[in-house]
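Subject line: Sequence and fold of a protein, written as structure tokens
Body of memo: The sequence and its backbone structure tokens, given next.
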Amino acid sequence: MSSLPIPNADAQALSQQLALLIQDKISQNGGWLSFADYMHMALYTPGLGYYSGGAKKFGMGGDFVTAPEISPLFAQAMANQVAEVLVQTQGDVLELGAGSGRLAVDLLLALQALNQVPSHYFILEVSTYLRQVQRETIQQHLPVALAECVVWLGSLPDNFVGVMLGNEVLDALPVHLLYKPAATEAPALCERGVAFNGEFYWQDQPLPAGNLLDLAATYDLPDDYLTEVSPAATGLIASLADALKHGAIIMVDYGFSAREYYHPQRNLGTLMCHYQHYAHVDPLVYVGLQDITAHVDFSSVASAGEHSGLAVMGFCSQAQFLMNCGILDIMSQISPHDMARYAPLAAAAQKLLSPAEMGDLFKVIALGRGLGLALLGFASGDKSHTL
């Protein structure tokens, strides 16, 4: 990975601390660690993991840019969908993994303009560091009355009513790597994990009987094929469903339906790392200093919701969802002749909507309980039938 920027000495020291912890875990586990466990430690080890350490993650000075960081347009359009559910439920908003807090700020301001401010805007955030970043963002950008409705939670509430929202949450959950060797090799199916011998390296082990093998068998994978499965993602959806009494879960992320996700040509999987705006495919370097993600299998998300008694309310591209939610109407409130204000909006809309940017790769799925009406965001171009 010689093309990547070199971390400074402090960052390298933190990375080394985390690497030693992972080496210990590999030793305790008989010399091999599932990639899901490795990814969990790399991202979430308190004080050292990527999401728990102190480096800037989001925006131009971080490692990647999320939709809410690009422009308030994203939250302003999303607010129309959130408000529609709040009118039906008279409930609250719960944001999962709120990043820098930018979405919370812009969404609350937009909901205020729509006269639909919830009593509570809950944030469920596992990272102590990011909680602090969110508090600073909210105190800096929201009037006191709006800031006071933001409440941080340590666990999911019981009998939640309203809207649960997650932007780029599912892609950061640990995944297991499955490898089906070429037909001439044995065994039939392996799990790819991490071993250590002076440095971290990949090592495959036969996949034993159990839930992972049963899950893999449902996909009928081709030979010489590497892919991911995410019991953590389906487990999270099941937990959210258990907590949701009345309302909707709306998740935005990059990914595919199962038919696309496990397509024979996608034989190297979707694992991706982000470090200072460089995207690459080696999660075994710069441990704790880079983001590690995998695309989302939205079919499994839908199935997990349905198994927990939720209805699939819609599934479409981010571009389709934002247009259904009125993003173009929001833009039209600024005159194109006012170039100082309009040009940045147009550039942001291009990033959010263009198929070459985030528009098609990012998808939006909504799962609901007790909602009588179809959702605005899926009024046109709903692709639920592809799940």
